Structure formats: structure tokens, C-alpha cells
Amino acid sequence: MNSRQRHFVITYFVVGAFLISLVWVNFSYTAASNSHNMPLGTVSISDQKFKETFAVVHEAEAAGPESSQIKDLVNRLNLALNLTDEAEAGAILDQIKGEASQLRDAASLRSYYNKVFVFAMVPVAALIVTVCVHYALRRHQSKVERMMNLKIREKREAQNV
What is the CA radius of gyration of the chain? Predict the structure, then answer.
């Protein structure tokens, strides 16, 4: 094999190993996420109610509230799973669902206001930059004009007194 063929084979194996590692990582991630189904503790809470509450908490987390608020919701969700009284656990899940909805809405609203602020500030920043560049160029141009308007004068020799 010449060196060109050798480089081709090495490149082929490196790319193949990279693709196999990507497939392996994706497979192991999928297998891990499928194997971690949450058991419902000692309470026989309806699966649907828990799934709805979990989905609302997940949406609230995706909306971006403070981590301490999400941590509190998750801790209370775990508490509801470990309760022995189904009615009490159901009440806690309903309360968690309501608070998660409020957190999601507040975080979405805050995100919307941030986007509006950024979109409003872009033209203002562009205007400030434009004015600064205009005056900087104007100042530079006036210095160049002054230099170009200078007249050449003959240097006078110092007179001996």
C-alpha cells in the first residue's frame, strides 16, 4: 500500500469509529432513559394524575424559573409519591400542578419581556454606534483637512544680535 491508500484507510477507520461511538452513546442514553421509569412509591396514585403533574413540572422547568423553586416542587413531588394516604397525595399533586403552572406562566412572561427588551434595544444600540462612528470619522476628517491645508513656509534663520 502506498501512503495515499494508507491515509485513506486510517481516515476511514477513524470516521467509522467516530460514527460507531455516536450510535453507542445515543443507544446507551435511550436505554438509560427508558430504564428509569419512576416507581410510584407506596401509594397507588393514578398514573394519569402523576404523569400530568410531572409533565407540568417539566414544562415549568423548561420555561426557566429559578432553580430553588423547581427544587421545591420536585421535593414535594417526591414527598407525594412516598405518602401512604392516597387522598393526601392527590391533594399535594393538585397543589404542585397549580404552582408549576403559575411558575411556567411567570417564567414565560419574564422571557417574553426579556425578548421584547432586547429587540427594542438593538435599534437604540445601532443608533448610538452610528452617531459615535459618525463623529469619530468627522473628527478624523477635520484633522486630515487641517493637515492638508498647511502651507509650506520658509524657515527663517536666527538672526545674530
Answer: 35
The DSSP symbol for 42 reads T
pTM: 0.49
Model confidence band, residue 40 (pLDDT cutoffs 50, 70, 90): very low
Q: What is the mean pLDDT of residues 17-35?
A: 54
Between residues 71 and 5, which one has the greater pLDDT? Answer: 71
d(CA 77, CA 43): 13
How is residue 142 written as a grid cell? 477635520
Q: Determine how many CB atoms are found less than 10 A away from the CB of residue 76.
A: 16
Confidence of residue 36 (pLDDT cuts 50, 70, 90): very low
Q: How many residues does the chain have?
A: 161
Torsion of CA 60, 66, 67, 70, to 10 degrees: -40
Task: For residue 55, give Cα distances in angstroms to 12, 94, 111, 139.
Answer: 44, 13, 20, 60
| Side-chain-facing half-sphere of 148: CA atoms under 13 Å | 6
